[in-house]
Amino acid sequence: MRKVEVKTVHPISVFRFYGGTGILLGVIGGIFLASANRLEVPAVLANLPFIAGAAKATRVIFLGGITGVMYGLILGLGSALSALIYNIFASLFGGIDVTLNEK
Questions:
Q1: Nearest to 64, CA basis, from 24, 28, 13
Q2: How far apart are CA 67 and CA 60, in angstroms?
Q3: Rounded Cα distance, 64 and 75, in Å
Q4: What is the Cα–Cα distance from 10 to 83, expressed in whole angstroms?
Q5: What is the pLDDT of residues 37-63, one digit of tens each?
Q6: β-bridge mates for residue 4, sequence order
Q7: Is 99 helix (H, G, I), strand (E, B) or coil?
Q8: How far apart, in whole angstroms, are the C-alpha atoms of residue 52 and residue 64?
């Protein structure tokens, strides 16, 4: 077993990972929510965010894509900010200790 310490996390790599993942999942979720209007479920649509409730059939993919991109950017920026905050506290108090097993 080997002990290592995570001293820094690179915010750009965190942004790329969570931003890309967020965009992919956001586009899929956005298209699904926007297309819920076509499924004629008004009770569900009443509780959904404005962008999903206001979507019409011709704008489903566009609104779903915009929603996904915004979700991905917000997730990426939030994660990059978290990485910056982690780096500050890791420099003050030390990083996270991780134990690795070699197989």
A1: 28
A2: 10
A3: 16
A4: 7
A5: 666 555 555 555 555 545 454 566 676
A6: 98
A7: strand
A8: 8
Nearest to 17 by CA among 86, 83, 101: 83
Tokens at 70, concatenated = 């915004």
Residues 6+ positions from 40 with CB-CB distance below 8 Å:
none
3-state secondary structure of 103: coil
pTM of the model: 0.63
Q: What is the CA radius of gyration of the chain?
A: 20
- List pLDDT tens digits, range 57-67: 456 667 667 87
Neighbouring-strand partners of residue 100: 2
Helix axes 11-35, 60-93, angle to 10 degrees: 150
* Alpha-helix runs per DSSP H in the chain: 11-35, 42-45, 50-53, 60-93
Q: Are 94 and 37 in contact (CB under 8 A)?
A: no
